[in-house]
């Protein structure tokens, strides 16, 4: 049996415009997979950081100077010509107008409006992740009361909420089912998606758009549940690896900051969170004490976005400006469909 080839580290840039469209470029003639479309980038040279390599490659290929690259997901791919470790980073700001310095084609696309040519295999899973919004809200009907919660849900959906976990473990299935149906009616009218916590009976999972596995249920699962979207909770790097191996779409990791719902767990802090999600093969949401103002910190430390329970239902959380414009604008990115 031949030994596995040592992976080549590659920085890949996911340039995202304010309208949510992202840049794809075709591979130049003379390279493996010529004319296939991919996220631009290139090999990390000796002594370079991923961020430094990405800045250099995007300047060489597209004549742009990028702002802060946000670490996101790391995936290993075996191609006939090389085994690569792709460090995907999201970039929201750059200066200069992209130019085809390598005579490649390029353009800005969406997951539902892609270029006509073939996609590089490593590009395909990224298109799915790009449909995940920045906020993953967790329901709070029990502490708020169903009537008030549904009112606040309607306001949140109007403000751009597009992804929600239904998690009301204290409710019997006969109480949870009608409440879930009201949540689903409102969410689907707004184009949002609802995952049901695996704490609930599986009969409720089938009513929604997917399931969110607790860490315990993740450990017990032998295969990915057969739903369109599957999330999972994780409290360690090993659990994140387990989730990725199972094929979930994203994980929620934490607690990052002190929170009344995780009193038994010591907060990770941002450095601890970054260490936990470093090299994660699936997008990770930061959980635990999250406020709208934590979104940029979360992304700087490797998070896809933030998962919130209490703060998700406070309307004033989602109107203050941040470095990207308004948080509300970030939340209204591509919806899961």
Structural notes for this entry:
It is a single chain. This protein is an alpha/beta fold and 337 residues long. The chain is 28% helix and 25% strand. It contains 11 helices and 19 strands. The protein has helices at residues 50-62, 124-129, 141-144, 146-158, 173-190, 202-205, 215-220, 237-246, 269-277, 295-300, 327-331, and strands spanning 8-15, 22-26, 37-38, 41-43, 65-66, 69-78, 83-91, 94-95, 106-109, 135-138, 163-166, 193-197, 210-213, 229-234, 250-253, 284-287, 305-308, 321-322, 325-326. The strands form 5 sheets. Strands 10-11-12-13-14-15-16-17 form an 8-stranded parallel barrel. A 4-stranded mixed β-sheet has the order 4-1-7-6, with helices on one face. Strand 16 (284-287), helix 10 and strand 17 form a beta-alpha-beta unit. Helix 4 (146-158) runs parallel beside helix 5. The chain is globular, with a radius of gyration of 20 Å. Residues 319-337 have low confidence and may be disordered.
Main sheet: which strands, in order across? 10-11-12-13-14-15-16-17
Q: Give the overall pLDDT as a whole number.
A: 91
- Give the helix proportion (percent range): 25-40%
Categorize the overall geometry: globular
Give the biggest beta sheet. 8 strands, parallel, barrel
- How large is the count of helical segments? 11
Beta-strand percent range: 15-25%
Tell me which oligomeric state these chains represent.
single chain
| Beginning-to-end CA distance, first to last residue | 43 Å
Structural class based on helices, strands and sheet pairing:
alpha/beta
Number of strands: 19
Rg computed from alpha carbons, rounded to a whole number of angstroms: 20 Å
């Amino acid at each position: 049996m031949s030994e596995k080839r040592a992976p080549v580290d590659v920085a890949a840039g996911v340039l995202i415009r304010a309208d949510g469209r992202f840049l794809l470029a075709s591979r130049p003639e003379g390279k493996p997979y010529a004319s296939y479309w991919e996220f631009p980038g290139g090999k990390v040279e000796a002594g370079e950081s991923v961020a430094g390599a990405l800045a250099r490659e995007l300047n060489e290929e597209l004549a742009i100077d990028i702002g802060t690259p946000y670490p996101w997901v790391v995936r290993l791919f075996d191609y006939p010509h090389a085994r690569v470790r792709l460090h995907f980073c999201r970039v929201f700001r750059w200066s200069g107008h992209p130019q085809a310095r390598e005579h490649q084609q390029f353009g800005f696309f969406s997951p539902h409006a892609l270029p006509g040519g073939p996609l590089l295999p490593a590009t395909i899973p990224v298109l799915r992740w790009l449909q995940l919004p920045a906020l993953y809200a967790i329901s709070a009907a029990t502490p708020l009361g169903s009537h008030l919660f549904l009112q606040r849900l309607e306001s949140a959906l109007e403000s751009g909420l597009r992804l929600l976990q239904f998690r009301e473990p204290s409710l019997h299935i006969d109480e949870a089912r009608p409440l879930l149906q009201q949540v689903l009616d409102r969410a689907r009218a707004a184009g949002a998606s609802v995952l049901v916590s695996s704490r609930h009976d599986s009969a409720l999972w089938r009513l929604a758009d997917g399931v969110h596995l607790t860490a315990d249920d993740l450990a017990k699962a032998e295969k990915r549940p057969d739903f369109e979207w599957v999330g999972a909770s994780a409290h360690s790097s090993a659990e994140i690896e387990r989730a990725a191996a199972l094929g979930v779409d994203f994980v929620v990791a934490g607690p990052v900051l002190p929170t009344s719902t995780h009193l038994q767990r010591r907060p990770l802090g941002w450095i601890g969170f970054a260490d936990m999600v470093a090299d994660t093969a699936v997008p990770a949401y930061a959980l635990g004490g999250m406020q709208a103002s934590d979104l940029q910190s979360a992304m700087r430390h490797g998070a896809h976005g933030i998962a919130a329970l209490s703060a998700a239902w406070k309307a004033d959380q989602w109107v203050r400006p941040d470095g990207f414009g308004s948080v509300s604008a970030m939340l209204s990115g591509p919806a899961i469909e």
